[in-house]
Amino acid sequence: MEAKCLKINLLFCFSIIYRGISSNYFSGELPATLAKLTTLLEFRIEDNQFSGKIPDYIQNWTSITKLMIQGSGLKGPIPSGISRLRNLTDLRISDLEGPEDAPMPQLNSMTKLHT
Length: 115
Fold this sequence. Notes:
The protein is mostly beta strands. It is globular. The protein has a single domain, classed as Ribonuclease Inhibitor (Leucine-rich repeat, LRR (right-handed beta-alpha superhelix), Alpha-Beta Horseshoe). The N terminus is likely disordered. The longest helix has 7 residues.
């Protein structure tokens, strides 16, 4: 199933607080409509086959507490705008493709980091 299928399901669901699509073998780029999910508290896409870089729009998810993108197929670096996520306490980012020497944005509220 391609990630494009998600676009159809999320067009009118902008008040979602949890989006978990882990281990579903989804592929393709994450749809831009996810940018509008500004009330997200938890986003889990680990163990999929997405392509493209980590989208800059995650900086708009200012309520998010858990972001789990390990093994998702996304490429780094982690966008610097992630430092705007003041409620983010749990970030799981292992297995990201991309430069290993990219700087890690400052995350003051972080209590769990899995790389």
